[in-house]
């Protein structure tokens, strides 16, 4: 009896007595043969799963009752806030507060006296804009061989893991195995510290190969080190992304861009209250408006010279229409609607070696498929046309803004 009840609960009942659904055939023994119009194959349709059957039994084709909707909504809202507190720490107002980097480079340390090829190993993740900064400066300074890398990818729980992805092009920047030790996750690498480590395992992370410890996980410290730390020993010393004459301007731009744009998009996407979102999105777009106006008459932020400030802005801009505009609710404008900012982004993208650091597919996968609280279905949209390599590679005419050298380039 129990089996019968379970079977009838999972499968729609087949009416046997309705005239429209039967065909009666007379025989000499006057027996009736019933032939239902529904086929056995239709009964076993995989589309009629348990949840669909239950919902039809409960309320037919109508919407779920209000009590169910409010219960699910309350439960999901509580679960969402719990997950967001783990993903994105916030202050009492619901505004995202980025945790400070634990490992910083001390400018007075002995590191600079012992820098040589192979001393350092860089751990990065391709979706991460902070890690992307280090990849670009490493490339522009010609440090690819001096500072090897391992490329982690986000696992199902968002933690950084190491897997090898093979492609047809050996030069493609793709997730890789751990090339410096046998750890399968970045958290295990952090855990190799002599005193142990139980904090956040973030990228980028610079590993001291000789001392077998984390040297730094603050992106700006790393790009400053790459810009000057190897000069005279290895790499391209002629490229200076932070010349002394521009340091004041670079610092001023960073003070504007970091809180309002770099971290501003995250303050929008990770906001846990309407008020926190409204504040963040207003500051983001007022800053983008100001930057677009400034770049109408200046090729780069500090004039004709590409600097670290430009690199820091670029890695947010290249992700804007791909991810932040949609997933982080930065919807007031697309970057494509800012003619100067978009052209500026294309200008930097076309600098030799920069495009090779931009894996657009991995960027989108890292946001849409991993940030479950923001995209529970993990469905990744198609890459916008304006973000495709062919569009980003079109002429931008930004060189006309360089009065001294209209063909100014970064030679690498």
In words, what does this structure look like?
Strands 3-2-1-4-5 form a five-stranded mixed beta sheet. The longest helix has 22 residues, at 66-87. The protein contains 14 helices and five strands. It has helices at residues 2-10, 40-43, 50-59, 66-87, 129-140, 186-190, 219-228, 247-262, 264-269, 274-294, 308-327, 339-349, 360-368, 389-392, and strands spanning 120-125, 149-154, 160-161, 205-208, 213-216. Residues 1-45 have low confidence and may be disordered. Helix 5 runs parallel beside helix 7. The chain is mainly alpha-helical and 412 residues long. The chain has two domains: 1-59, no CATH class; 110-401, Glutathione S-transferase Yfyf (Class Pi), Chain A, domain 2, CATH 1.20.1050. Pfam families: GST_C_2 (PF13410), GST_N_2 (PF13409). GO terms for molecular function: glutathione transferase activity. Residues 243-367 form the GST C-terminal domain. InterPro entries: Glutathione-S-Trfase_C-like, Glutathione-S-Trfase_C_sf, Glutathione_S-Trfase, Glutathione_S-Trfase_N, GST_Omega-like_C, GST_Omega/GSH, Thioredoxin-like_sf.
